[in-house]
Specification:
Layout lengths: L1 H5 L6 E4 L18 H6 L5 E3 L4 H11 L6 E4 L20 E3 L5 E5 L3 H14 L4 E5 L2 E3 L3 H10 L3 E4 L8 H7 L18 H7 L7
Length: 204
C-alpha cells in the first residue's frame, strides 16, 4: 500500500468492511481496531468513515472526485439512518445541536450512539452537541477548535483503538508546539540533510 499506491499517489479507492468490533462472534482475529491508525499514517491517503447508508453513498461519490488514494471505512452491522438529505462536504464535520455543556466527536457507527446519548442527557438537563467526523484525514480542525471554545467538555467515541484513531486526530488540532511535523514518504539523501530540512540541527 505504501510503496505501490501512496508513494506514486495513485488514484486508488479502498473500501474496508467489518471494521471495529461489529463482527462480534467472529472474534478478535476478525476485528479490525487499527485500520484508521494504519491508513492515517500513509502519506497522500485520505480517510473517510461514514455514519449511515446514505452518507456512505455520498462519501463514495465524493471519493470518486479525489485524484489520489482514499480509504473508506465501513462496518458490518446495519446502522440507523441519520440523514435524509445530502449533508456531506469532504473534510468538514457535521454539528448536531448547539449545546454548551459538552461536545461528543464521533465517527462511523458511533455517531448514532452519540446522538442517542445526546437525547438521554437532554432528559437530565445536560445539553451537549454531537459532531459527526466523517472525514478522519484531513480532519476538520476548525470545528474542533470552535467546539473547544464553545463547550465545557470534549469527548470522542469510536469503534477503534485509542491509539492512532479519531481521538489522536482530534487533539492534535490543539498542538501548536511541534513545528516540524511531517506526513510524507522518506527522502533519498544524506540523513544530515534530511534533518536540516526538518529544522533538526542537533539531537540533544
Amino acid at each position: 500500500m505504501r510503496n505501490s499506491v501512496c508513494y506514486p499517489n495513485l488514484n486508488v479507492k479502498i473500501a474496508g468492511t467489518h471494521s471495529g468490533i461489529t463482527v462480534g462472534e467472529d472474534g478478535a482475529t476478525h476485528q479490525m481496531l487499527e485500520d484508521i491508525a494504519l491508513m492515517r499514517g500513509l502519506p497522500n491517503m485520505k480517510v473517510l468513515s461514514p455514519s449511515d447508508d446514505l452518507q456512505t453513498k455520498w462519501a463514495i461519490e465524493e471519493a470518486s472526485k479525489i485524484n489520489g488514494p482514499v480509504y473508506i471505512r465501513l462496518c458490518r452491522l446495519a446502522t440507523p439512518t441519520i440523514y435524509d438529505e445530502k449533508n456531506f462536504e469532504f473534510g468538514k464535520g457535521i454539528q448536531h445541536g448547539e449545546g454548551t455543556d459538552g461536545t461528543i466527536f464521533a465517527t462511523g457507527n458511533m455517531v448514532a450512539k452519540a446522538l442517542q446519548a445526546k437525547e438521554e442527557l437532554e432528559k437530565q438537563g445536560v445539553n451537549i452537541r454531537v459532531v459527526d467526523i466523517h472525514t478522519i484525514k484531513p480532519i476538520d480542525k476548525e470545528i474542533i477548535v470552535k467546539c473547544a471554545k464553545e463547550t465545557k467538555k470534549l469527548i470522542s467515541i469510536e469503534d477503534h483503538s485509542v491509539i492512532g484513531g479519531l481521538r489522536n486526530s482530534d487533539f492534535r488540532s490543539f498542538d501548536r508546539r511541534i513545528s516540524n511535523q511531517t506526513n510524507s514518504i522518506g527522502h533519498s539523501r544524506h540523513i544530515w540533510k534530511i534533518w536540516k530540512s526538518r529544522r533538526i540541527t542537533r539531537l540533544f
